Amino acid sequence: MGTSAANKENFKGSRIEPWKQKELYFLVTYAFVFYVIIIRRSLQLSHDYGKQLFGLRPGWLIPRQLNDVTDAQWRNLRGNIPVLTVVFGIFTLLANLMRPFFNLKVGGMSIIWLLFSLTYLSYLHGACIIFVLSIATVNFLLVKIFAQKKYFPLVIWSYNSFFLVCNRIYEGYSFSIFGQQWAFLDNFRGTFRWHICFNFVVLRMISFGFDYHWRNQDSHFDMEKHCKRCLICKSGKSCYQALQESRLQNDKFSYTTYLCYLLYAPLYIAGPILSFKAFASQLEVPQNTHSVKNVALYGFRWLFSLLLMELMTHLFYYNSFANSGLWKHMSPMDIFIIGYGVLNFMWLKFLLIWRFFRFWSLINGIEAPENMPKCINNCHSLEDFWKNWHASFNKWLVRYVYIPLGGSQKKLLNVWVVFTFVAIWHDLEWKLLSWAWLTCLFFIPELALKSAANAFQVKHILAFLLQSSIVPKSLIFLFDIKLNVVHQAESSFGEFIFREISAVAGAITITSLMVANLVGFVIGPKGINWLLDSFLSKEGLPVLGAMFITFYVGTKLMFHIEEARKRSC
């Protein structure tokens, strides 16, 4: 803590060093040239192959330009934005009128939102709402019956894992399996497959179970210490962390509040995920972290992001290339461009989906964690990437999976359990399991290096080198390094070496992330050999080298962004 505070003080108000300033000019110039090349080649590819691609529709933003709407998730949200806006607008207006008029607290607001949400789900799932309510009700009963037992975690995980898998295997079940007299209900299955949304319901059911299980246990969270450090809590407001760790009375764990939490309309389809305790706390006292002005600005930023997505899909057909399979016959350079474009498309797509629903939740007084707090192009470590990609799911995994399994004490083993669960939670596909296990393989060296770096600081390395015969005395004299000024050496030469090693490690990490995500979401495990053959060929090696240098430059640019942020704090 003291070191961290001292570092912040050192950064605050300090000026950028001359060599770093020159480096920054070079990095920005390189990045500008890189994106000019990427954009020009992407435009050329879209123009040359436009007639061979499928899923392109007439565009509206640019005359005579087609629009890439091949991604099903994006196409569905894009087509339903007007309807969802009207529905959530009506729900919001009614809820905000009824809360003050009837002076509603947790119980009253949970009933109001439960009625709204049941109406919403009846349209989405039709008669299949019976499956949702039945599974949720049994889960509630299991929690209430077994919460005080030592084997409760086994009960709750077994029950929820069973339905997580079975829902996918049986594609949401048919009513006819319960008897032909119920077969007619299969004609009223709604407009949206219930078992797809139910993955999020499973996370909420587990959250409710463990929050109830832990309600009387001593928390390791120091609220007083947190309030002294947290800028939001210092101002008299309540941050998400404080809400999540606050104590709830037993009557707040009621069936109506539980169902309201599971089915809360603005967050039902795609999240973000928040814990039961954070949700129930905000039913009584709506979030006060974000002012009306800030929420409105959040909405305008979402509209700007939507326009950016429309511009991207009108000009660059990355997703259509990935779905068509044409990229298999392209050069390594073009494969890299399409792969990089697909990852950026995915990031922007999920940002729009999650922020749309979070916006409506904020208006209704429920704050959920921001799922995409950082840009995909501003993450240079796997740990940093996963903290900022579907961040609310990451917080959920840490709270309900990672820490109960032993946390950082068993980190190298826990990542395998966590990512395997993440893959199964997404879908039962081998390519997703391949993605999960590849990510774990890439994660282990990073975790090992970080642990080693923390245990054996740079100054210890320098001290060892200076005391041994590894470093000649002439070199010691040249750098004016003496044993009694090791700290000075660390802050100059040591910092430079550490920075370079970190940049190389960042480049390796970004390359690994690209490979893992391409295997998981584009080419599948069968495409690994083909990908290696393409980039390890005579034509592919120069592209691989240029790609690595680009990621190295990008990582160093990220360092400058982090340092600029610290100086401004």
Automatic annotation (TrEMBL):
GO BP term, pick one: triglyceride biosynthetic process
Subcellular compartments: Membrane
Coiled-coil segments: none
Classification via InterPro entries: MB_O-acyltransferase (IPR051085), MBOAT_fam (IPR004299)
Chief location category: membrane
Keywords: Membrane, Transmembrane, Transmembrane helix
Protein name stated in the entry: Membrane-bound O-acyltransferase C24H6.01c
Topology class, membrane: Multi-pass membrane protein
GO cellular component assignments: endoplasmic reticulum; membrane
Keyword Chloroplast: no
Pfam families: MBOAT (PF03062)
